[in-house]
Amino acid sequence: MFREVVWLRDVDELTYQEIADVLEIPIGTVMSRLSRGRKQLYHALTTKRS
Amino acid sequence: MDCREVEDKLAAFADGEDLSAHAPIVAHLQTCGACRASPHAQSVARTVLRARAAELSSVAPPGLRTRVVANLGQHLKAPETLPDISWGGRLTAFATAAIVVLTLGAVLLPVATIRSTALLAAQLALDHLKCFTIEGDADGTPISKAEAEATLRREYDLVVDVPPSLPDERLDLMAVRRCLYGDGRAARVMYRLDGEPVSLFVIPDLSRPPAELSLFGHDQVVWTAGDRTDMLVARAGLRERLSRVAPYLRTEAK
């Protein structure tokens, strides 16, 4: 769920509004999923390295 | 503000928004260590993904690409939004072909490219079809480069280096018009390639990655030169011929 939003923003560079349109979710949900998804990725990266 | 409210806003800061303009969030971060670490974590994650975006773009999460393209298809599936004019039958067929070809053919491109370039291609292919169908290409006699450039300057206040006819490829310069894309600052140069209508759109202040596309029942060749993007459009089936004349047009359309 979070991964899609992170992917669309950081890999495909869609705007928040475009992501909201594509996934048919509110823009606030886009931002919260993006925030949580990025943090999950960060923790995965740092945990793996350590 | 509580942590949940703040978290929802922090994605924007990782995207470069100025944090100092949001005093309540700054105040919260000063008192909350967990939230204070979030912008850094998000920035690192974003940086990692951006650094590998080119290689990642072809391996999207399962189902995402299909879902996005299908959704884009819905946005483009709009015969009702097309002009209701006498040749509507052709336009409806065009729109139907657009959806099918887009859904089947565009899945390998990055999503951003699909959305931006496909939407541009949709508008310009429609413009190309409309222009040659309704307005025609003047009296069917080729015109010179000087005539074309003078017309663009005099009638539309557009300064464009128009590539002249190329007899070796049977490419004839037929007419020039203004294209309404981009606030009317784009030029449309109309050619006949072996008698087939071909449009060269010259769009200022736009950057698109180079691409050869087959969308909406048309073939398109796209390139960017400086601060301008050019798109060459013809009916499907002329891809090889377009690819042969594109380097010439790219060089001449300065």
Radius of gyration of chain B: 23 Å
The side-by-side strand order for the widest beta sheet of chain B comes to 1-2-3-6-5-4
Largest interface: A-B, 29 and 32 residues
Which overall shape of chain B is indicated by the principal axes computed on the Cα atoms? elongated
What is the number of strand segments of chain B? 6
Helix content of chain A: over 70%
| Average pLDDT score of chain B | 74
> Level of helix content of chain B?
40-55%
Strand portion of chain A, in percent? Answer: under 5%
Radius of gyration of chain A: 11 Å
Can you summarize the main beta sheet of chain A? none
**Beta-strand percent range of chain B:** 15-25%
The low-pLDDT segments of chain A are: none
Tally of DSSP helical segments of chain A: 3
Q: Layout of SSEs?
A:
The complex is a heterodimer of chains A (50) and B (254).
Chain A: H1 2-11, H2 16-23, H3 27-49
Chain B: H1 3-14, H2 23-31, H3 33-51, H4 53-56, H5 64-76, H6 88-105, H7 111-135, H8 145-156, E1 171-179, E2 186-193, E3 196-204, E4 211-215, E5 218-225, E6 228-235, H9 239-252
Antiparallel strand pairs in B: 1-2, 2-3, 3-6, 4-5, 5-6
Helix pairs in contact in B: 1-3, 2-3, 5-6, 5-7
What does this entry look like structurally?
The complex is a heterodimer of chains A (50) and B (254). With 50 residues, chain A is mainly α. Chain A has 3 helices and no strands. Chain A has helices at residues 2-11, 16-23, 27-49. Chain A is elongated. The model of chain A has no long low-confidence stretch (mean pLDDT 82). Chain B is α+β, with helices and mostly antiparallel strands. Chain B is built from 9 helices and 6 strands. In chain B, helix 5 runs parallel beside helix 7. Chain B starts with a helix and ends with a helix. The model of chain B is unreliable at 72-114 (pLDDT under 50). Classes of the chains: A mainly alpha (50), B alpha+beta (254). At the A-B interface, helix 1, helix 2 and helix 3 of A face helix 1, helix 3, helix 5 and helix 7 of B.
